[in-house]
Amino acid sequence: MKILVNGIPSNLRFSSAHVIPGHESCGYIHGHSYFVDIVIEGERAGKFDFVVDFKEVKEYTKAICDELDHRLLIPVFNDLVEFKDFDKEKDSIFNLKKRHSIHFKIDGKGYTIPGVDCVLLPLPYTSAEELAKFFAETLARKLSETYDNLKYVSVCVNEGIGQGAEYRKDL
Ligand SMILES: [Zn+2]
């Protein structure tokens, strides 16, 4: 059986800035009001015969939304994104996150942004596609700590109404 959670009425939303390095029109920093829809399939199980508890699904997803909300999302592993004094191959992203200011170039354009204004994501892009994969994998990992009856977690990250990308993480 499947359960569905709709992002707009469930308040699984975030407003963030991002950039698609090298893209003709999306290569400039711009924003979206995102919302996240979820489908989870699994066997019904446990004391209440649920697939999964809606409350937990919403709580875990909201926590990811809150982390990204009102921030600039930077894809650390994009080839066109270079950080000052940071080697992507050797240095830990956690050290980069601790910096007061983040100095970086995107496709040759230089930026200095306060660390608290950014979220550094271990992704090649902060596209709807990559964000959907990030949400699905993070949510699946969290739910797997307490559930062993789930078949997959599918997440659609919508860049506003009418366009979104869906990723299914099989368990
Ligand atoms: Zn965009």
Radius of gyration computed on alpha carbons? 17 Å
Number of helices: 3
Structural class: alpha+beta
Rough outline: elongated
Spans where pLDDT lies below 50 across 5 or more residues:
none
CATH class: Alpha Beta
Tally of discrete structural domains: 1
Largest sheet: 5 strands, antiparallel
What is the CATH topology descriptor? Tetrahydropterin Synthase, Chain A
By CATH, the superfamily comes out as 6-pyruvoyl tetrahydropterin synthase/QueD
Blueprint (SSEs and pairs):
Blueprint: E1 2-5, E2 13-18, E3 30-42, H1 54-68, E4 72-75, E5 81-83, H2 93-97, E6 101-106, E7 109-114, E8 118-121, H3 128-144, E9 150-158, E10 164-170
Helix pairs in contact: 1-3
Q: Which key phrases capture this entry?
A:
5-stranded antiparallel beta sheet; 22% helix; alpha+beta; 3 helices; 171 residues; Tetrahydropterin Synthase, Chain A; binds zinc ion; 3-stranded antiparallel beta sheet
Structure in words:
With 171 residues, the protein is α+β, with helices and mostly antiparallel strands. It has a single domain (2-170), classed as Tetrahydropterin Synthase, Chain A, CATH 3.30.479. Helices cover 22% and strands 36% of the residues. The protein contains 3 helices and 10 strands, in the order βββαββαβββαββ. It has helices at residues 54-68, 93-97, 128-144, and strands spanning 2-5, 13-18, 30-42, 72-75, 81-83, 101-106, 109-114, 118-121, 150-158, 164-170. Strands 1, 2, 3, 9 and 10 form a 5-stranded antiparallel sheet that branches. A 3-stranded antiparallel sheet has the order 5-6-7, with no helix packed on it. Strand 9 and strand 10 (164-170) form a beta hairpin. Helix 1 packs across helix 3 (128-144). The mean pLDDT is 96.
